[in-house]
Design goal:
Layout (H helix, E strand, L loop, with lengths): L2 H5 L10 H25 L9 H4 L8 H28 L10 H7 L6 H11 L7 H16 L6 H19 L5 H19 L6
Helix pairs in contact: 4-7, 7-9, 8-9
Length: 203
């Protein structure tokens, strides 16, 4: 029996190829780096080009304290004016019933006033007076801004309300309002224009 047939063997062992292993390792490392780079690039933070004002609009809230102050001031001044007129009416012997139609009485101009009342009235309607064009138109705008929290996008809405009020006052007066009222209207409208311009709105 041939012992060589049993004991002989064919070497099937392949030697370790360090070059192939190195290339395999390098290729795997490169692939891992490429994947990592792709992943990293996918989460890179790029700041938004939008400004803070684009994403978060300013909040406007009514200024209730100023509204109350303006109301109280107007009521006190109106009461003062009414008191002057009532004294004028009663002082001239007019029946108290006439006071119910106080506007027609004033509109007629058929009355005289004492020096003190005249001086007070003139001071009140002077350019720098409480009922003068500038102060009155300023109060109209202050009140509109207090109601809207100063939001210029509401300027046109407030302008319409002012126009409605002016029309109602004209109707109550019973005729075209005095010249000072028209000047106040014009001044207030100009101030509404300026306010609306802040929001890029033009009439």
């Amino acid at each position: 029996m041939d012992v060589n047939g049993v004991t002989s063997s064919v070497s099937t062992y392949t030697g370790y190829d360090s070059t192939a292993k190195k290339a395999e390792t390098t290729g795997a490392a490169d692939a891992a780096k490429a994947a990592e780079a792709t992943t990293d690039n996918g989460v890179v933070y790029e700041p938004s080009k939008e400004t803070a004002t684009d994403s978060a609009k300013k909040t406007y809230t009514p200024n209730t304290q100023l509204i109350s102050q303006l109301k109280a001031d107007a009521e006190a001044r109106t009461a003062q004016l009414k008191s002057l007129v009532e004294k004028l009416i009663s002082g001239q012997g007019n029946a108290i019933g006439k006071a119910d139609d106080i506007w027609s009485f004033l509109r007629s101009g058929d009355f005289t006033v004492d020096a003190a009342t005249k001086a007070q009235a003139e001071a009140d309607i002077a350019d720098d007076g409480y009922w003068g064009v500038e102060q009155t138109s300023d109060r109209i705008l202050d009140f509109a801004k207090a109601l809207t929290g100063g939001d210029p996008s509401k300027a046109e809405e407030m302008r319409k309300a002012f126009k409605t009020g002016f029309e109602q006052a004209t109707k109550t007066w019973g005729d075209k309002l005095p010249d000072i009222s028209q000047k106040t209207y014009d001044a207030a409208m100009k101030k509404f224009d300026d306010w609306a311009a802040e929001a890029g709105v033009t009439e």
